[in-house]
Amino acid sequence: MSKFVPRLAFILAAAALTAFLAGGAVAFESKCAQDSDTQLEFCSGSTAVSYTVREGDTLYEIAQEHRVSLRELMQVNNLTESLIRPGDVLELPEPVEVEIALSRGKVSREELMLLARIIHAEARGESFEGKVAVGAVVLNRIRSPHFPKTISDVIFQKNNRVYQFSPVGDGSFNLEPDETSLEAALQALSGKDPTGGALFFYNPELSSDRWIRTLPVMTRIGNHVFATCL
Fold first, then answer.
1. Are 164 and 4 contacting, i.e. CB atoms less than 8 angstroms apart?
2. Distances from the Cα of 217 to the Cαs of 36, 106, 213, in angstroms?
3. pLDDT band at 230 (very low <50, low <70, confident <90, very high)
4. Residue 32 has pLDDT above 50, yes or no
5. Membrane-spanning residues where (predicted)?
6. In whole angstroms, what is the distance from residue 176 CA to residue 118 CA?
């Protein structure tokens, strides 16, 4: 492990045009909400509709194109596997957040992908809650006066020339994040924090860092112990 990955904007008009060209009829209805506790604003469009599968389509590509979760797309259509056939008609669930904004400014798509990458690299094999927890630690550091103030700077921070996140140093950070890691990143950005405010995490079976073991433990999720400052 390590001691210790965005402006995500989906333009409604462009999304509607894309859906229309792809053969799906999508009606968008704007709705916004403000969470004063997390200082995060999100807007989403609601879809009421269906999509007819074309030759060469994959379920993952349809989910990506329409900005919906692959898991939700499968659940809404009662699918237990990703096999689809041309002519199948799929119901499209409500898309994920169209726009996410933190108090310090909008989070870019690039930063979202950085957060998803570090989650994927650090928490492969962990539960969904464990993945969200890793993302929450990154965001908790941004809010702390002891760490950098952007997702990118937190992830690439070094201490004595050593990266705070070991996957950045060993290259596993560059692996493409999966759908679950992307969902976990969005959950963390929406304010979910299973750690209760942790700033550090480690695997006690693998970590040889004595200092980190002296930190107050907040919780343990899967193989990771989550801790905070003294």
1. yes
2. 28, 32, 9
3. low
4. no
5. none
6. 10
Domains in the chain, CATH or no CATH each: 12-101 (3.10.350.10), 105-227 (1.10.10.2520)
Task: State how far the Cα of 52 lies from the Cα of 28, in Å rounded to an integer.
Answer: 18
Q: How confident is the model at residue 137 (pLDDT cuts 50, 70, 90)?
A: very high
Q: Report pTM.
A: 0.58
Q: Tell me the C-alpha distance between 45 and 26, whole Å.
A: 10
pLDDT > 90: percent of the chain:
49
Residue by residue, DSSP assigns the chain as --------B--HHHHHHHHHHHT------EEEEEETTTTEEEEEE---EEEE--TT--HHHHHHHTT--HHHHHHHTT-SSS---TT-EEEEPPPS-SEEEETTEEPPHHHHHHHHHHHHHHHTTS-HHHHHHHHHHHHHHHHSTTS-SSHHHHHT-EETTEESSHHHHHSGGGSPP-HHHHHHHHHHHTT--TTSS-SEEE-TTT---TTGGGSPEEEEETTEEEE---
- As given in the structure block, the two tokens for residue 121 are 């690299």
The pLDDT score that the predictor gives to residue 219 is: 96
The residue count for the chain:
230
What's the alpha-carbon Rg for the chain, to the nearest Å? Answer: 19
Q: What's the pLDDT score for residue 1?
A: 53
Average pLDDT for 180-199: 93
